[in-house]
Amino acid sequence: MDWVERTSNLRQWRQGGVRAPHKPLLFLYALGRYQQDAGSVLKYSAVEADLKRLLAEYGPANKTTPAYPFHHLVSDGVWEVRTDRGPGSPGSGVQVLRAAGAAGRLVPELRAALGREPSLLGRMARVLLDQNFPPSLHDELCEAVGLEPEPVVEAGPLAAGRRQRDRRMREAVLTAYEYRCAFCGYDGRIGAVPVGLEAAHVRWWAFGGPDDVDNGLCLCSLHHKLFDKGVLGIGDGHRVLVSQSFIGHSPAAREHVIALSGRPLIGPQQGARPVAAAHRSWHASQVFHGVPRPAA
User: Fold this and answer.
1) Which of 106, 126, 160 is the last residue in one of the domains?
2) 274 inside domain
3) pLDDT tens readout for residues 212-233
4) 227 falls within a domain
């Protein structure tokens, strides 16, 4: 059985580019717990708070419950659930899972495969991260689930058939924005080398976002992370959106985040394509959290 391929083919809602990272987040959490303790069993009532935090921070803005993936991941053949009465999930309701003493873990066949081939865990984690989240969030997401995936070089038919990133995008986007953060104007360099500047996908690459200039922004490291976490967005007239959900009382938070609300984007230079409306719309519906603040 090819566990990497099975991981790649988790049943998720994908229509219209809608984000549904519920199963991948639970699976990553389970892999992290397995890495820490191969014999661990995850009782729903004990891990519910952890899973809710993961969904709130890395999931879409609409409210959801970890009970859904806890029950439905069973159908993908990588996860099993038992209750006080025996094997089998009692359903996807929060109260039902709590009352039944539901507990989940990786299926025995997968645990055996991970025991025989420890590097398999890193390959599975990499697939979950690459297919569901932008690179800017990978390290902190691994830390959040207690996972330490080993860097891997994929090979075989699965890797060969997967869409490949265009490595030229970074240079094209940074050039279009003249090596300045489109939100704050930061343009730091060491000698001739830019530092702290990154090319951000507006519509995430994992959700069909193309490696094109009109799907990119040149952003400083701080604003790239906040953009991918849904704190910042792009509104009509290519003006910066700041979520009302963001709270910051320090002068730095007010200056570097809250004061951006309503500002026009800096760039791109004349002749370069600005961010396409379809990509702005996807980010607004799938990543941006809450309601925008009034213009500063």
Assistant:
1) 160
2) yes
3) 999 999 999 999 999 999 999 9
4) yes
Whether residue 130 is found in the same domain as residue 230: no
This prediction has a pTM of 0.80
Residues 28 and 150 in one domain: yes
Read off the pLDDT of residues 80-137 as tens digits, 9 standing for 90 and up. 999 999 999 999 999 999 999 999 999 999 999 999 999 999 999 999 999 999 999 9
DSSP string, the chain: --HHHHHHT-----GGG----HHHHHHHHHHHHHHH-TT--EEHHHHHHHHHHHHHHHS-SS---THHHHHHGGGGTSEEEEETTEES---S-HHHHHHTT-EEEE-HHHHHHHHH-THHHHHHHHHHHHHHS-GGGHHHHHHHHT--PPP----SHHHHTSPPP-TTHHHHHHHHTTTS-TTT----EETTEE-SEEEEESS-GGGT--SSGGGEEEEEHHHHHHHHTTSEEE-GGGBEEEBTT----SHHHHHHTGGGTTPBP--PPTTS----HHHHHHHHHHT--S-BPPP-
| Structural domain boundaries enclosing 173 | 169-286
Q: Note whether 126 and 206 are same-domain residues.
A: no
Residues 94 and 177 in one domain: no
